[in-house]
Amino acid sequence: QQTAPFDYVIFGGTGDLTMRKLLPALYNQLRIGHVPEDARIIGTARSELSCDEYRERAREALEHFLPPAHKDAALIERFLKKVHYITLDGTKSDHNWDDLHALLEQSPADRIRVFYFSTAPQLFEAISENLHRFNFITPQSRVVLEKPIGTDSASARAINEGVSRFFKEEQIFRIDHYLGKETVQDIIALRFANPVFNAVWSAEHIQSIQITAAETVGVEGRAAYYDTSGALRDMIQNHLLQVLSLCAMEAPADLGADSVRDAKVKVLKALRPIPADKVAQETLRAQYVAGEMAGSKVPGYLEELGTESATETYAVMRAYVDTPRWKDVPFYIRTAKRSHKKVSEVVVTFKKTASSLFGKDGEHNRLVIRLQPDEGFGLALNIKNPSAADFSLQHGAMDGRFAPADGSLIPDSYERLMLDAVRGYPALFIRRDEVEAAWAWVEPTLQTWAANKVPMTHYPAGSYGPEEARKFIASTGDAWHEDM
Ligand code: BG6
Q1: N or C: where does the chain have the smaller number of CB atoms within 10 Å of the terminal CB?
Q2: Is 375 in the pocket of ligand 1 (CB under 6 A)?
Q3: Is 239 a catalytic residue?
């Protein structure tokens, strides 16, 4: 439903994320009637641009990134009227803050203000300080922090401390766009709304869980950022550990922000530490080399970068959640750039039924939750082979889709989250203790990799990944979903 009127101030307003995701998300929410007519979106960045020039960029972005079914020339015009721009370096106290003031003053004093920091995290504290210095932070204000929150525990703590000098925790919305994916929220629905899964969701019946996010894209124009990050920081510390916590958490008392986040943080804190001397055994890192994708040659990571680098573009970690429910069940967390296909999925492999009825055990039951693309779920079962005279078994499958019943497209993850920040609903945002617990768990691996104590493996762009990944998962008795 429609939110209260708001002013959305985006720092990093000319950036890739704003153009690719944030503006299209707000446009689409306007399209479906969730954005009130007098809402305003104020882009800010250092570039000297007029409001008209900024609107022109926004128009191009919408033309480029909106799905064809959502493009509507009249609506784009209506949306652009809500868009404003101020040239502003948020880290400098002697910059155009007066212009921002003049614009925000046109709204009633109690209007909801959302400050969205889509900038490098090192700038978060300085921008917050200026917002405070010039009295922009009202009781109705919130701040959205884009990832990454730091590069390790210490920097994450420093950023959290820095921002919390000026904003209260309940005003701070740390975004992880995976939580905004409808299909990721479906993990909660599938688990807790269905006794057929809920009743068997433990080590007693589950052999392992694979969580994969593979992409066909390389580092695109983001090599400068990516090379300081790598796959583990870019995808595992945040998105995939969030997916893991939803898969592994105990039932929250309700779907309120604190209950869900309490349940998730318990999982993160129960992750079995991987000490330095186990990192080589429990993790795998790799970099793509030149290969072929869709019939064209693509360069390797180092060629794209133009320099030497020990940054991984592929990472696997084997995690254990040390709670009674998950006793010794491996969770395989895997992410890749330049993979042979784009797929994010959770694969739950159930233990075989030990039964003498059929002569031999059937295959594993397997639940595949397809987060994207082809959003839906598949369940592999054993059924009787209808053409066999004896009682031999064969594979049977059930398939379901997460698509909305009215045939519309699944909303983009930023849509829900951007308006949840307006509504002041933080359940799908990361609490401070979650960020810090996730960093604490990945840190020994990051350090051991940085010290070059784990060999870097390689895979051709467009391939399924390094050969070593097969041995890695086989060492605990499993196989990757695509090899099954
Ligand atoms: C971002 C990462 O957080 O997630 C990118 O920084 C990655 O490197 C992206 O491409 C993946 O998001 P999605 O929604 O396409 O899986």
Answers
A1: N
A2: no
A3: yes
Q: How far is the CA of 176 from the centre of ligand 1 (A)?
A: 10
- Assess contact for 140 and 110: CB atoms under 8 A: yes
Ligand 1 pocket test, pick from 177, 178, 183, 414 with the greatest ligand atom count within 8 Å of Cβ, gives 177
From CA 131, how far away is CA 172, in angstroms rounded?
14
Rounded to whole angstroms, the Cα distance separating 425 from 257 reads 7
- Which residue shows structure tokens 């039924």? 353
Indicate which residue's Cα is closest to atom 13 of ligand 1: 178
End-to-end CA distance of the chain: 43
Our answer on whether the CB atom of 213 is closer than 6 Å to any ligand 1 atom is: yes
Q: Which residues, including other chains, have CB under 8 Å from residue 146's CB and lie 6 or more apart?
A: 12, 17, 116, 117, 118, 119, 121, 175
Could you count the other beta carbons within 10 Å of the beta carbon of residue 340?
Answer: 18
Does the annotation flag 341 for ligand binding?
no
Residue 250 CA to residue 288 CA, distance in Å, equals 37
> Over the stretch 398-412, which tens digit does the pLDDT of each residue have?
999 998 888 888 899
What is the rounded CA–CA span in Å between residue 77 and residue 383?
56
Centre of ligand 1 from the C-alpha of residue 25, in Å: 16
CA distance 296 to 157: 44
Q: How far, in Å, CA of 162 to CA of 165, rounded? A: 6
For 312, the token pair is 């991984």
245 C-alpha to ligand 1 centroid (Å): 18
3-state secondary structure at position 367: strand
CA 329 to chain centre: 23
The annotation status of 177 as a binding-site residue, yes or no, is yes
Summarised one tens digit per residue, pLDDT across range 202-250 is 999 999 999 999 999 998 878 888 999 999 999 999 999 999 999 999 9
CA distance 170 to 451: 38
The DSSP letter of residue 351 is P
Q: Which residue among the candidates 70, 239, 364, 458 is catalytic per the annotation?
A: 239
- CB of 182 within 6 A of ligand 1: the answer is no
The per-residue DSSP string of 124-150 comes to: HHHHHHHHHHTT---TTEEEEEPSP--
pLDDT digit string (tens) for 157-197? 999 999 999 999 999 999 999 999 999 999 999 999 999 99
Instruction: Please give the sequence-ordered ranges of beta strands (E in DSSP) within 351-452, or none if there are none.
Output: 366-372, 376-384, 393-401
* Distance between CA atoms of residues 159 and 148, nearest Å: 10
DSSP symbol at 262: H
Helix count and strand count (H, E) for the chain: 17, 17
pTM for this entry: 0.96
Maximum alpha-carbon separation in the chain: 85
Say whether 21 counts as a known binding-site residue. no
